[in-house]
Amino acid sequence: MNDPVAVVLAAGKGTRMNSDLPKVLFPVCGRAMIHYVLDALQRSGVRRVIVVVGYEADQVRAELQNRPNPHGVKIETVDQTEQLGTGHAVQMAAPALQGQQGPVIVVTGDSPLLQSTSLQHLLAHQAEHKTAALLGTLIKEDPTGLGRIVRDSAGNFQRIVEHKDATPEERAIREVNMSTYLFAGPDLLNALDCLSNENAQGEYYITDAPGILLEQGRPVDALPVLADCESLSVNTIDELSLVEAKMAEMGYPLNA
């Protein structure tokens, strides 16, 4: 079990989309947006994907079951019946990850511009440097609202700080976290066991996992290899329009 496995977070309702449709099923250029995420994972070499479902789970499962699968990618689902944070979502996949010694990619299902080339860079870096956790990051001209990557004077990863919690100096940082993670399987399971919900929201966050592993002396790194288009995710109808415009600009096939 050394081949890469992916966990896709797809349990959300997407309240700001003003629709009862599960967010990951919103059509983007004629396809449910989760298919673009699965395409990128498939092209990067992933052959097993665990999709965490929650809101209208049966609709999402039906969409996945109808997905053409000429490459034999195994797609399975696990339930997150309560939405208690991104860390909690990944915890729901933990039983399915038992015995996974190789890398585990964790991404969100609402990022249809995820690029397989970025994932391949992360997989290659992890294979060479044996990192316990590796964050795919992006250098963004305007990082407002996004979590910043804080490094020490030697350039080593220290932590993620959310925009609302950042000092003025930290807000000047342009390297941002984009919810694209790669963990060594055993290290991810260890970090999931250590997550705490002692925060203002009372939720478990996957963003805490790299810091937990760093405190345990495990190697953690952040690699700014994401393309600028990967900063576009879909939380509102306006963002959906931006993503569709970018896809048209990049030559994505329509209604594929």
Short description:
The protein is an alpha/beta fold. The chain has helices at residues 33-43, 57-65, 86-97, 116-129, 168-171, 185-194, 208-215, 237-250, and strands at residues 5-10, 27-28, 31-32, 48-53, 74-79, 103-108, 133-139, 148-151, 157-161, 175-184, 220-223.
Query: How are the strands of the biggest sheet laid out side by side?
Result: 5-4-1-6-10-7-11
Number of H/I helices: 8
What is the CATH homology-level superfamily? Spore Coat Polysaccharide Biosynthesis Protein SpsA, Chain A
| Structural domain tally | 1
What is the number of beta strands? 11
- CATH-assigned fold name: Spore Coat Polysaccharide Biosynthesis Protein SpsA, Chain A
The secondary-structure class comes to alpha/beta
What is the CATH level 1 assignment?
Alpha Beta
Q: What percentage of the residues does DSSP assign to strands (E)? A: 15-25%
Question: Can you tell me the CATH architecture?
Answer: Alpha-Beta Complex
Mean pLDDT: 94
Main beta sheet: 7 strands, mixed
First and last CA, distance: 32 Å
Low-confidence stretches: none
